[in-house]
Amino acid sequence: MILCCGEALMDMLPRTVGTEGTAFLPVPGGAIFNTALALGRLGNKAGFLCGVSTDLFGEQLLAHLAASGVTLDLCIRSARPTTLAFVRLVNGDATYTFYDENSAGRLITPEDLPVLPDGTSALHFGAISLIGEPCGTAYEALLTREAPARVISLDPNIRPGFITDEAAYRARLARIIPQADIIKVSHEDLDWLAPGEPFEALAKGWIASGVKIVILTLGKDGARAMTRTLDVTVPARKVEVVDTVGAGDTFNAGFLSALDDAGLLTKEAIAGIAEQSLAAALARAVAVAAITVSRAGANPPFRSEISGS
């Protein structure tokens, strides 16, 4: 099982209501939620670990995952409210305003963490769940506990507007990055993580610290991945972009899905991945993301929609 560990929330998507102005449509989302959803739709065994409310939005979130076959046994339930993310779209690109104080997702602690099933092969982390407290401490503790034996995937997915203690967050990233096997970043992430530093230099530094695969998404130009010995780029698929909500999240799912299908989700296999296998995983990731951006909101494809899969 690939266990996705992080936020579930309601994306409040803007919709024009006649001549009355803009209303907001609540849609299940969250970066880690989206990755779990996409993995389930791709037919891989996926699980989700998060603090989830018992309110009406929490029930909607879990029902949405369950409909795509995602295992929910490890979710931590409480009566606290669900996080809301109001979305603003400018030329198809999304920015977010979060309402997360005292939420079910934010207030989980290390003491809430469950024992993971033996069949858990990989864990995926990232986004706002690593920023807030006490949940950030809880997810860091889980990552550190499981990193010696299981594949760790990390997508920082930086949200500058959500960061209230930049020094503490940078310190957390400095601690967890060397424990990850796979890291995916965008150009926007790079601009915040290491302004002015070329991707190649940053990737080589991370690889020297212990990371096995570093991926850079390139939007319309595809995606690039580096390992200690490989540097692979695959082209994008041409689609008409509706919006970019969930693009990176579903890219992560496509990449992990391909590795899982190939039997490569072990620490040893990731460390010695062949060029053909790396290119194939990038290609599926690009294909999954391309379908997602061609639709409104984070609506990842099912496996039957991915040609060649």
TrEMBL record:
Residue stretches making up the Carbohydrate kinase PfkB domain: 2-301
Gene3D superfamilies in alphabetical order: 3.40.1190.20
Record carries keyword Aminoacyl-tRNA synthetase: no
EC number(s) on file: 2.7.1.-
Stated name of the protein: Carbohydrate kinase
Protein family according to the UniProt entry: Belongs to the carbohydrate kinase PfkB family.
Domain of life: Bacteria
Annotated source species: Pannonibacter anstelovis
Keyword terms of this UniProt record: ATP-binding, Kinase, Nucleotide-binding, Transferase
Listed GO MF terms: kinase activity
Pfam families, per the entry: PfkB
Cross-referenced InterPro entries: Carboh/pur_kinase_PfkB_CS, PfkB_Carbo_kinase, PfkB_dom, Ribokinase-like
